[in-house]
Amino acid sequence: MNTPKTAVIPAAGKGTRFLPSTKATPKEMHPLLNVPLIHHCIEELAQAGVEKVIIVSHKSKTGLNKYFEDHLDLKDLLKKDGKTELVNRLESIENFPEVVFSYQEEQLGLAHAIYSAKDEIKKDDFFVLLPDEIFIPSKKEENPSLELLNLFNQTKKSCITLLEVPKEKVSSYGVAKIKETESNSLKVIDVIEKPKIEEAPSNLILPGRYLLSNKILDIISKTKPSKNGEVYLTDSLITLSQTDDLYGHVTKTPRFDGGSVVGFLKANLYKAMQDKNLKSEILELFQRIN
After folding, report:
1. Which of 32, 89, 173, 218 suits a disulfide with 205, CB 3.0-4.6 Å?
2. Spatial separation of the C-alpha atoms in residues 201 and 273, rounded to whole Å
3. Is the pLDDT of residue 2 over 90?
């Protein structure tokens, strides 16, 4: 396995939990403060040395493509108005890793979305980031993708981010069964999808950050669809753990479920509270409400 320089961001979903907003605006373009979720993902990947990001989209979601275009007219207008800081913000997008698009015509599961990008992935090992899983670090080292890269460099094997949650919440997630190795690494030996609380093998869930060997593509191609026709990444990860090893890293970076309205609101409030000016405004609002 070579040091991964490629990443996949699945973004073809319809975002039904955010209707009617997502009729016109892709969920991945919803802002964490004033910056879209997908922007945050690519910043995270850039810190981990990624040079190419493949966004798996749907052809109806044109807003994603437009975001990564060079808006020359807008920059010229801002320059004339002397708004240099805003120009710099736009140009920072142009300095991102290369962004290319693959398309998933039908939403047939996360594994199917990843496989849709196989022609762009080629023979590379690659990261996978789910953009509605929001991680908000307080310092650069709190970066799930960077944590996975460090674990990869130690093990030379596929690895996934794990997150500790209260036991009563495990039935909403994929839950890892782990085994501690002599080197104190956590080897993932099974993944149980949405288990009953009493049947959960741990309270470590999979919160949407992966660094995978290219071997996963062949495994996905042989993974049988579920009864609803979707190909689950969980099933492919189980096979990978049995044939080529799979390691986990328990992150401490604050995480929010940006796929739900409540989780998205919490993420924005948490992010705002990291800004001194916004924090004072929010605290003042809360005082007025109380």
Report:
1. 173
2. 35
3. no
